[in-house]
Amino acid sequence: MTPDKKPYYIKYETPKEVSEAAYEVLRQASRTGKVRKGTNESTKAIERGMAKLVVIAEDVTPPEVVAHLPILCDERKIPYVFVPSKDQIGPAIGIDVSTAAAAVLDAGEGSQILEQVTQELSRLKKSA
């Protein structure tokens, strides 16, 4: 995929600082809170209304793997953020493999950063 051509499911451009903050929320939540790893577990967390933030990678192939997540999040009014690389989500949650998505159930010590990220995301969505 070319860098200038984003997958069709990406509804807005995420600023670099918001992406970095999302990775930090994942790091802190995986240490002191609760995180669900992968597309399937994230989907279940969204459907059950347990997710506080869903982090979705932009570089997933095929894109259909994660294309349903923004739709589900919108239906359930759960904030979600697009990050550039699935290779960074895995290490952020403490696993050695890349993962297409992760859901934060309890941010733990990262709750303040989570609040900032969700406020920034709602602002981004309004302008999109």
Question: Which key features would you list for this structure?
Answer:
4 strands; 128 residues; 60s Ribosomal Protein L30, Chain: A; alpha+beta; globular; 5 helices
Brief synopsis:
This protein has five helices and four strands; from the N terminus they run αβαβαβαβα. It is α+β, with helices and mostly antiparallel strands.
Describe this structure in words.
It is a single chain. β2, α3 and β3 form a beta-alpha-beta unit. The chain has 128 residues and is an alpha+beta fold. α1 runs parallel beside α4, α1 runs antiparallel to α5 and α2 packs parallel to α3. It has one domain: Ribosomal protein L30/S12 (60s Ribosomal Protein L30, Chain: A), CATH 3.30.1330. It has five helices and four strands, in the order αβαβαβαβα. The protein has a four-stranded mixed beta sheet with strand order 1-4-2-3, with helices on both faces.
